[in-house]
Amino acid sequence: MKYILVSFDNMPKIVFAHCYETVKKNAWKIIPDDNDVILEITAIKKGKLKLFDIQNNSVTVEDEGIVATIIHRPYIVSTDSDYHRHFTFAIRASNIKADLTALDVIKYVTDNAEQTDLTAIIPDRFDTADTEYVTSCISKIIDIFNSREALSNIKLMAELTNLLSFATGRCYKSALAETASQNGVSNISYCRKAFEYVAEHISQPIAVEDIALSLNVSYAHLSRLFKKYTNMTLVEYINREKVKKMEEHLWRKKLTSFELAQSVGITDEKYALRLFKKYTGLTVGAYTKLHTYTE
Predict the structure, then answer these.
(1) Chain-wide mean pLDDT for the chain?
(2) Which of 40, 68, 171, 265 is a plausible cystine mate for 62, CB 3.0–4.6 Å?
(3) Concatenated DSSP letters for the chain?
(4) Cα–Cα distances in Å, from 148 out to 122, 136, 161, 164, 218?
(5) Least confident of 7-11, 35-39, 227-231, 274-278
(6) How many C-beta neighbours within 10 Å does residue 151 have?
(7) What pLDDT is stored for residue 292 in this prediction?
(8) Taking residues 170-198, what's their average pLDDT?
């Protein structure tokens, strides 16, 4: 399975949603505008779809009976049978990152357990066990999109959000299974539990020794594992997370430097300010001037 991170500046916008059916072989072009970031989620009910990548001169085949995610780029799409049918909808995003690793997915979901930004992780192909459910979600989106019912926009966003949430959860479980089979369950779970420990204790002083003790593993072993699987030290991760939390606090209300340091469990005010400057590139004073506080 491949994982796709999709981000939205605002509520996701559906570009089109329909059932496509043909009784003869057919072909059409997808030529997106330069500034368009669009992906389709397509349930193929009958007959394969072939996508010829015009730029890379390569062919991808989406089989009958699967649900595929297709990122729009210059394609020639064709059906290969006399009868073809698929259900599809397309959404416009602000950004798509299509090269996430399984560890990227785990870290992203763990880091954003209480996320407020509009993002989702979608597989390039949904698992066979999920095909029926996802197809039913697509059908509902098509019906609502093409209806004239009252509150259809709200219903549409509810169905779309439900599907994106489902996809993200499935990707997370798949990523956990993938990394466990590759690296050993204990190794990857140590990193995941370290993420969780930092999130739970972000407002308190955090030492690597404390994390290792909570996991019943040595300081050195945990440090090696974390560096291997995340490409950063655990101390660096802790500092980054504390700075992110300081930024969140500054968005909500104005704090003194002392209060800001205390809010993330740092007793040395000057050290907290140095960390903030290191990871944001701005002093706290400069940062606050760029943002509007909401009381």
Answers:
(1) 87
(2) 68
(3) --EEEEEESSS-EEEEEEEEEESS--EEEE---TT--EEEEEEEEES-EEEEETTTTEEEEEPTT-EEEEE-SSEEEEE-SSSEEEEEEEEE-SEEEEEE-HHHHHHHHHHTTT--SEEEEEESB--GGGHHHHHHHHHHHHHHHT---TTHHHHHHHHHHHHHHHHHHHHHHHHHHHHHHHH-HHHHHHHHHHHHHHHHTTTS---HHHHHHHHTS-HHHHHHHHHHHHSS-HHHHHHHHHHHHHHHHHHHS---HHHHHHHTT---HHHHHHHHHHHHSS-HHHHHHTS----
(4) 29, 20, 20, 24, 62
(5) 227-231
(6) 9
(7) 47
(8) 76
Cβ atoms 4, 98 nearer than 8 A = yes
The residue type of 13 is K
Compare 154 and 141 and report the one with higher pLDDT: 141
22, two tokens: 């043909």
Tokens of 145: 């999109």
How far is Cα 200 from Cα 166, in angstroms, rounded to an integer?
25
